[in-house]
């Protein structure tokens, strides 16, 4: 199965905006759900792009399952993010003005895409996520973030995302010259808290 490209939009139109925020929803969520979160972010004047996962999930199993178990959905999902980025580039938006926000499965997908395609982006926020795979395949990750600000927020423990993977992901991103801020909340649960929104605004959406 592969995903059908279905990008929901919000904010300014692409031909009027100077910046774009790509928002990636979690398992069982929707593009409209995550777009509604934008009202809490400092993204007035941004065009908002949110691809919709076919059948509401980007890949069927845990992000730390063997990668082959999540294929071909996973490769198609990564390709969907790439096509969403290309939509912005084709509209004349520079990569350094493209931002990302992902939650849970969407955070994992965002981080996997970014680590595979590192360059100077505007910034990224990933709430409860890490790079994908039973074991981390460092060879997949190439490029230089040129100090792109990336905020990682998570709960410890989290039922879906072990905190060790969040730390390992932060280390990889730092090695690739990202300006990483990580924040771990004890026993917060699988959701987004107000401080994470405030940190996202102060670190990424300045």
TrEMBL record:
Signal peptide: none
InterPro entries: AB_hydrolase_fold (IPR029058), LYPA1-2/EST-like (IPR050565), PLipase/COase/thioEstase (IPR003140)
All residue ranges annotated as the Phospholipase/carboxylesterase/thioesterase domain in the record: 16-200
GO molecular function: hydrolase activity
Keywords, in A-Z order: Hydrolase
Family: Belongs to the AB hydrolase superfamily. AB hydrolase 2 family.
Protein name: Alpha/beta hydrolase
């Amino acid at each position: 199965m592969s995903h059908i490209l279905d990008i929901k939009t919000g904010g300014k139109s692409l031909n009027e905006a100077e910046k774009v925020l790509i928002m990636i929803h979690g398992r069982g969520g929707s593009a409209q759900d995550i777009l509604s979160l934008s009202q809490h972010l400092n993204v007035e004047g941004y065009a908002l792009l949110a691809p919709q996962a076919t059948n509401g999930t980007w890949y069927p199993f845990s992000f730390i399952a063997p990668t082959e178990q999540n294929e071909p959905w996973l490769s198609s999902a990564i390709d969907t993010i790439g096509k969403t980025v290309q939509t912005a580039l084709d509209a004349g938006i520079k990569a350094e003005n493209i931002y990302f926000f992902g939650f849970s499965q969407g955070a994992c997908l965002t981080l996997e895409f970014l680590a595979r395609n590192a360059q100077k982006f505007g910034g990224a926020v990933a709430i409860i996520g890490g790079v994908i795979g039973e074991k981390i395949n460092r060879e997949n990750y190439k490029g230089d973030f040129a100090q792109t600000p990336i905020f990682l927020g998570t709960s410890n423990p989290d039922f879906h995302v072990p905190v060790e993977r969040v730390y390992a992901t932060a280390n990889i991103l730092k090695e690739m010259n990202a300006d990483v801020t990580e924040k771990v909340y004890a026993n917060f649960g699988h959701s987004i808290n107000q401080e994470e929104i405030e940190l996202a605004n102060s670190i990424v959406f300045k």
